[in-house]
Amino acid sequence: MGNMNSFKFSLGFPVEAAYQIMPDGVNFSTFSRNATKVFLELFEKSDSAAPFQTIELNPKENRSGDIWHVFVKGLKPGALYLYRFDGPFDLSKGHRFDPTKYVFDPKAFAFTDGSVFKNMKFGQPCPLEKMPKCVVVDPDDYDWEGDKPLKTPLNKSIIYELHVKGFTESPTAKIRWPGTYKGLTEKIPYLQSLGITAVELLPINEFDEWEVTNTNPKTGGRLKNYWGYSTIGFFAPKTSYAFDRSPGGAVREFKDMVKALHNAGIEVFLDVVFNHTAEGNENGPTLNFRAADNSIFYQLVNDNKQYYYNFSGCGNTFNCNHPVVQDFIMDCLRYWVTKMHVDGFRFDLASVLCRNERGFLTGEAPLPRRIAENPILRDTKIIAEPWDAGGAYQTGSFPGGRWCEWNDHFRDGIRKFIRGDEYLANEAATRIAGSSDLYQSSGRQPINSINYIACHDGFTLNDLVMYNGKHNEENGENNRDGSDNNNSWNCGFEGPCENPRIEDLREKQLKNMFVCLILAQGVPMIVAGDEVRRTQNGNNNPYCQDNEISWFNWDDLQKNSAMLDFVRKLIQLRTSHRVFKRRDFFGGSKTAGDLTPADISWLDYDGKIPDWKKMNRFLALRLGGGVGIRGVEEDNDFYIAFNTDIHDMTVSVPNPSRGRQWFRVIDTSITGLNSILCAGQEEPLISQGHYVIPSNSVVVLIAK
């Protein structure tokens, strides 16, 4: 970088990004409306205890509107920097400027490795030598080798939610680069073997895992923010998830991972957290946004602006519908799509995006529509978690047009139905058919429903059949944290069990849920490890457990190989048949007169039109494959029946289409590998008109 005390600088010019790299230097830009001075601090090394150069930005010369700027001649990529902002400290107006605090660039593209929170003591700032620094990186200095967005249609998408570190951190992963972006690329063959089309990554935007101060009462060790829902740098990939910890190494390694996943036909979605930041409430640390312009970036209590609205449940609420913050979020999303080649986003507590500047929920909030309509983002998937911690709930009504939603109606309805709750057949039928009650009236489609039964937040699928109650004692909150509304059933024993009858029932229930998830209309989402019965030992809120409780245990592939085989074949079944991948809702119509059955028919156990008021612990449907325009069969017909009762049931199976017969594809009551059969290996029914469905079992038949 040359002489550390001799960089010349000039006025510079405003740009939307954090900086623009020029042939002869770097032009920095940052936003502040209410600051009176801004200081750019340059550092020699990541552990420097003081800057080697301070550049004061003059408000009369280095400011255009609300953008402060300066050009540093001779500075190159790899340079390290922080900011200081001076201005009024006036809580009545929401101003918290403090020129003594070194802070991060809100738009930094990369950080050096390290922790702020681990090195804070009694609310005091982190010592500068231990504080991470922002890194100048060239976002265009990378060879994408022709990589382009995959644009996988939603009706063909299968999402796999995973934690970048936890997926490969366990020694059981037996890889060269555990817990990193690079480590994830080593496991791409496994992802391909599953048949999933997209990975949805828990937050990889820079956060500080050491902000959690709880200790594990069992071990006495300090807990961490494992999930990462506490963003410090929205533009920066987390440095500690990279094997290459050199300045900017995480950016290169993240791009390598995306390119490798794309080459394998797998899209990359990011879980983004625009509802709040790591700065917390009025007692929290000053890290970036609070320093740059607290009154702009956060929703402050209208008549007492020293306090923050807390619709996130995490201390503060990002002021998403202020025009400046809107632009910040849009710039961020466009950056991840254009420079990092990301394919989609899942928005955490997305209802915050629908709150106006006074905190009121409104369907006319501009940001959701801006995201949906932005020309650069039009090919990306946008998925809302359609609620927040302030009481907003928008499942089925999230505004903005083409948004997909996490469908908690699917989650809860299927859990209860498979558990054996009474009179849930109508609810289960609605969910399996694509949740038309939620999406049809607004002109949306089944593909707007992201179907899931388990996700990172809550029990794993396996723990749903092992625990009646949560066991979060190791979180250090006396088991008060986490939801008590789990709709789980331990099948007769709490926790691990060696009773073969209970274990067989648990495996059967897991297969039943997987059939509902994978064969339902909509977009299925699996959480990593559910396909091999990953357990969190009954912890339904392991946000702070960066250990074996949360990590993927790769020994489970062999231990639960039959379940893995079932899920792989089930995904292959969905992928191979268009009847499970509709873009539109069912109409109950026949596609070729009386020659073929309706697109969907609901049946009771006698094979007749059901009386929904009497349908209890049973559901059956027939999917019509239809006939192509030249009389060639487009797809097979399927018969799917669910017996969630404790008694076996003999059901009447409808007549197959002319010249065809029914073959068994799935019977979850059968143990081992034969509970699901590959294409070409299906077994013909001995009695074409009847089938005995054992208790707590699902049967799928195909007409061939």
Annotate the secondary structure layout.
Blueprint: E1 9-10, E2 19-22, E3 25-31, E4 37-43, E5 53-57, E6 63-64, E7 67-73, E8 80-86, E9 89-90, E10 95-96, E11 134-135, E12 159-162, H1 164-168, H2 181-186, H3 188-194, E13 198-201, E14 205-207, E15 231-237, H4 249-263, E16 267-272, H5 289-297, H6 323-338, E17 344-347, H7 366-373, E18 381-384, E19 404-407, H8 408-419, H9 425-432, H10 436-439, E20 449-451, H11 461-464, H12 500-519, E21 523-527, H13 556-559, H14 561-576, E22 600-603, E23 618-623, E24 638-643, E25 649-652, E26 662-667, E27 683-684, E28 690-693, E29 697-703
Parallel strand pairs: 12-13, 12-21, 13-16, 16-17, 17-18, 18-19, 19-20, 20-21
Antiparallel strand pairs: 1-7, 2-3, 3-7, 4-5, 4-8, 6-7, 8-11, 9-10, 14-15, 22-23, 23-24, 24-29, 25-28, 26-27, 26-29
Q: Could you walk me through the main structural features you see in this protein, from its secondary elements to its overall organization?
A:
This protein is α/β, with parallel strands linked by helices and about 700 residues long. Helices cover about 20% and strands about 20% of the residues. The protein has 14 helices and 29 strands. The strands form seven sheets. An eight-stranded parallel beta barrel has the order 12-13-16-17-18-19-20-21. Helix 8 runs antiparallel to helix 12 (about 500-520). The longest helix has 20 residues, at about 500-520. The chain is elongated, with a radius of gyration of 27 Å. The termini are far apart. The model is unreliable at about 630 (pLDDT under 50).
